[in-house]
Here is the input.
Amino acid sequence: QESRHDVVFIDDDNRYMFDLRHEVRFINASEYELANDQMFMGLLCGVVAQNFDIGLICIDAFKKLIKNELDSTEWLFNRLEAISAKHSVDFAISVSADVEELPEFIKKYAI
Here is the structure.
């Protein structure tokens, strides 16, 4: 609500579209028929590339969007760290899992 930068919210359907402030850019990723985690990363890179004012990208239903097991996504989290550092973009990711079930490379981000 108090962000000085643009905010993007990515979900797998439209359920939160009308719950967000109108300033938030909502993306229903299911409209892009993403087949795997690599295609999802391509979507994220495109979002960041098209708007240099983005400061926060919120991702809901992460496991549904990547269509892959969390254990195999270390490369993706490493890439998110690099994008975050290079473009000053923060990521808030919703993962439906208990913290104990998360791979070690994800646990450091859990809140």
Notes: The longest strand covers residues 6-11.
